[in-house]
Design a protein that fits this description.
The complex is a heterodimer of chains A (about 450) and B (about 350). Chain A has helices at about 125-135, 145-150, 175-180, 185-200, 210-220, 240-250, 270-280, 310-320, 360, 375-380, 385-395, 400-405, 415-420, 425-440, and strands at about 25-30, 35-40, 50, 55-60, 65, 75, 80-90, 95-105, 160-165, 200-210, 230-235, 265-270, 290-295, 300-305, 325-330, 335-340, 350-355. Chain A is an alpha/beta fold. Among the domains of chain A are: about 125-280, 3-Layer(aba) Sandwich (Rossmann fold); about 375-440, no CATH class. In chain A, the strands form four sheets. Chain A has a six-stranded mixed β-sheet with strand order 1-14-13-17-15-16. Chain B has one domain: Ammonium transporter fold, CATH 1.10.3430. Classes of the chains: A alpha/beta (about 450), B mainly alpha (about 350). Chains A and B meet through strand 15, strand 16, helix 10, helix 13 and helix 14 of A and helix 1 of B.
Chain lengths: ~450, ~350
């Protein structure tokens, strides 16, 4: 079957992109909050081990927790100040997790500490991978998966293509868009690091057509046209998902339950790439990132370079909230997670947050039984049958869902719930079903 | 600051929706059916109006009563039962006694929909269940036809319409044979242009192919109907009849006659496309349509009755869960496990 190879992946949805509020606004620096909250646990992996004591003075960019093994990343102070507390901090799931709280020193110059540089020309691939881990870099697109883990060479696998993900298919978010426009040099330097680390012969930057200006910019300044190309893709959600992007660009299908490496590809988010290009030559650790703060509930919408660990409440107070704000979620509206309280911090994986007012959220729509319209089947990018899965979830047939209907391939993109005319919360069902299945499977 | 006292909503992603709703789909189907109703009233006069009104009333009342009894909340506001009522009315012959219309409507909704759990759970198209009941119970009334466009259709109503419940209706009008009956029993072919325009006798809503197609195209354009179902039906009917007609033109009718006679258009566009009772995958829908098309031709040409659309659709409705079980979407990444090595 080759018919899907010509620009695209199968199925998918077309939610309105709502990016016009912020896609023309340059990245601005966000002020320092009086307190920074640094969780030790990335979304995936082992928690970092604190290397500082309470009351100790730290400098911005200084290592405050070291990686615990390969599946872990270190944490760097995002502001100069004193360690206030090493203990539990609130997280987006509503539970308390291990973390470090820093009292920011007012009036500090906030100079960034430098470490041992990792120079492109002299470093070996292993050294680059190690430097990326030491810089504390995780996927900035939202998944927050430790970047060095997917770059690690495996004996029996080779990488022929490096894909730089500049798709940013989530509505509202313009983080990657602005980074591509303003940090093209960092991106291309990052790509050279990544090419060397993976051994790939070529890199493709995938960008959706609603960011043509970013694509034009990258094409015009591309210093390495032999190895790096820029591909503009038709706008379709969820093209930014790794598997969809690989299929759209290369026509390869990642096997069920497999990794991009199985088809000789490594996918890295474009903002992550820029961060690699920016940090590695100075041996610095990641202590800030670009986020989009947008949505009808925000007064000063925009793209901001914000210290990691800034409490959400401080960020919201700075940009200003509308009176009738009713829901805030981290990430885009399709896959983003609603925040349980405003005391949680901006983390490395926060690509932005969106605030809705009562006008957008409204009363919960009435849920009807499935009428078999098949819209969910027509949009599911993993070619699953969400209708049938929803029915099975309701009947608690979790094992059947996994074994017969490939539930575990669902990555919760939300396209099915988005189109469902019966307003069935399919994604929520699937999330619950996966959790239940893991319980059954572990038992 | 006022927002400090605010509570934030927490909902599962996605936080936006396409805005499409069940009521919206159902309402649009009603809009698409209304021109057919208008044409039925134009062609058959007051009897059409009375029959369709009675059909809708019977269906809506039945669902309302049952849902009040069982769920304490009426489900008629989702508009799906209005569609059932309209479609059921459109499949009935003009001049049919109203009490029979009412009985069929009650049976169709009660046994075809409510009994299985209401919207989303009906295995058969409830409108056709009602019609099938009438066909079995009152075969004479269901096959007595009035000619279309009779001059006094807007002033007088046939006496049979007012027949007292459970009495035998007395037909005073000389009946006109439908094009299909004429073809089957008298080997008379009706002109295709008359069929397309709806100038023949037949059930209330099935005569004008062009008005039905218009409504169907509207729904396909709004993506509220799966076009693969009528496509499957048309392709299989055209192919099968085309072959038969090519072999023996005197014995078998032309494909265009088959397409525009009887209830095929109405059935293909509005009956077979009942989302609940049809398969969910695109390929499944096409197969389902093809099965209906083949059955229609088989029943019409070799069966004992002139028309086969209703039974073909009911039979395919019964098959549709099995089609879904056999034709499943092939999940991403499962097909390539053997073949893809990245080259």
């Amino acid at each position: 079957m080759t018919w899907y190879r010509h620009g695209g992946f199968r199925h998918g949805a077309h939610p309105p992109d709502d990016k016009d509020d912020t896609n023309h606004l340059p990245i601005r620096r966000f002020p320092f909050a009086p307190v920074m909250i640094m969780p030790l646990l990335p979304r995936i992996g082992a928690p970092a081990i604190p290397t500082v004591r309470e009351g100790e003075e730290v400098m911005r960019g200084q290592l405050i927790a070291r990686a615990d093994g390969f599946m872990s990343v270190p944490v760097h102070a995002s502001a100069t100040g004193t360690i206030k507390k090493i203990g539990l901090v609130p997280s987006i799931n509503g539970e308390m997790v291990g973390g470090i709280t820093i009292d920011v020193m007012p009036g500090s110059t906030q100079e960034v500490a430098e470490g041992d540089p990792c120079l492109l020309d002299s470093a070996t691939p292993e050294e680059i991978v190690n430097a990326i881990q030491q810089a504390g870099i995780v996927g900035l697109g939202g998944a927050a998966f430790p970047t060095h883990v997917k770059l690690k060479k495996q004996d029996d696998r080779y990488v022929d293509t490096l894909i730089i993900n500049g798709v940013e298919c989530e509505p509202y978010l313009t983080t990657d868009h602005r980074v591509m426009l303003e940090q093209s040099d960092d991106i291309f330097l990052g790509i050279r690091y990544l090419l060397k680390a993976t051994g790939a012969k070529r890199a493709i930057i995938g960008i959706e057509a609603n960011k043509q200006d970013a694509a034009d910019r990258l094409i015009s300044v591309n210093p390495d046209k032999d190895r790096v190309s820029v591909e503009v893709l038709n706008v379709k959600y969820p093209q930014g998902a790794e598997k969809m992007l690989i299929t759209a660009l290369l026509g390869r299908e990642v096997p069920s339950g497999g990794l991009p490496l199985d088809v000789h590809v490594v996918v890295v988010n474009v903002a992550t790439t820029a961060e690699i290009g920016q940090l590695l030559p100075h041996g610095r650790g990641i202590q800030e990132r670009v986020i989009t703060i947008t949505g009808p509930g925000i007064k000063k919408m925009g793209n901001y370079r914000i210290p990691i660990g800034t409490p959400l409440r401080f960020a919201l107070d700075f940009v200003g909230m509308e009176e009738n704000i009713s829901e805030v979620f981290i990430g885009g509206p399709m896959m983003g997670q609603a925040v349980p309280n405003l005391d949680i911090p901006i983390t490395k994986g926060t690509s932005g947050f969106v605030a809705f007012t009562e006008n957008e959220t409204g009363p919960a729509p009435k849920v009807y039984p499935c009428i078999h319209c098949g819209h969910c089947v027509d949009v599911c990018p993993m070619i699953l049958n969400p209708s049938q899965l929803g029915l099975l979830a309701k009947n608690q047939q979790f094992e059947n869902m996994v074994q017969e209907y490939n539930l575990m391939d669902c990555f919760e993109c939300g396209a099915c719930s988005y189109v469902c005319p019966s307003h069935i919360p399919l994604v929520q069902y699937f999330r619950m079903a996966k959790k239940e299945y893991r319980k059954i499977d572990a038992a | 600051m006022p927002h400090k006292e605010k509570t934030l909503n927490i909902g599962s992603s996605p936080h936006i929706s396409s805005g499409l709703s069940v009521e919206q789909i159902m309402r649009n189907v009603v809009w698409a059916i209304l021109p057919i109703v208008a044409f039925a009233i134009y062609a058959f006069g007051l009897t059409a109006l009375l029959t369709i009104a009675t059909a809708v009333l019977a269906c809506v009342l039945t669902e309302h009563w049952f849902s009040k009894k069982t769920q304490h909340k009426s489900t008629i506001s989702d508009w799906s039962v209005v569609i059932t009522g309209l479609l059921y009315g459109l499949t009935l012959p003009p001049g049919i006694p109203l009490w029979m219309v009412f009985c069929g409507g009650v049976i169709g909704v009660a046994m075809g929909k409510v009994m299985f759990g209401g919207l989303g759970f009906n295995p058969f198209n409830p409108a056709l269940v009602g019609r099938a009941f009438l066909q079995a119970a009152f075969p004479v009334s269901m096959t007595t036809w009035m000619p279309a466009l009779s001059p006094d259709r807007f002033v007088s109503i046939p006496a049979s319409v007012y027949t007292f419940p459970f009495a035998t209706p007395n037909y005073d009008v000389v009946s006109g044979a439908t094009p299909l009956a004429a073809m089957k029993f008298d080997s008379v072919m009706t002109d295709t242009s008359d069929l397309i325009m709806g100038l023949t006798s037949g059930s209330l809503g099935e005569t004008s192919g062009i008005v039905i197609l218009l409504g169907g195209f509207y729904l396909i354009f709004r993506k509220m109907m799966n076009w693969r179902i009528p496509a499957g039906i048309f392709v299989s009917v055209i192919l099968l009849t085309g072959i038969l007609h090519g072999i023996e033109p005197t014995l078998y009718p032309t494909p265009q006659f088959m397409l525009f006679s009887g209830g095929l258009m109405l059935g293909a566009m509005f009956m077979a496309t009942d989302m609940v009772a049809s398969p969910i995958t695109s390929l499944g829908c096409f197969v389902y349509g093809a099965i209906i098309g083949i059955l229609v031709v088989v029943i019409r040409i070799w069966g004992g009755i002139p028309e086969g659309v209703m039974y073909a659709i009911l039979f395919a409705n019964a098959l549709s869960p099995h089609i879904d079980r056999i034709i499943r979407p092939v999940a991403y990444g499962t097909r390539s496990q053997r073949t893809s090595n990245g080259r």
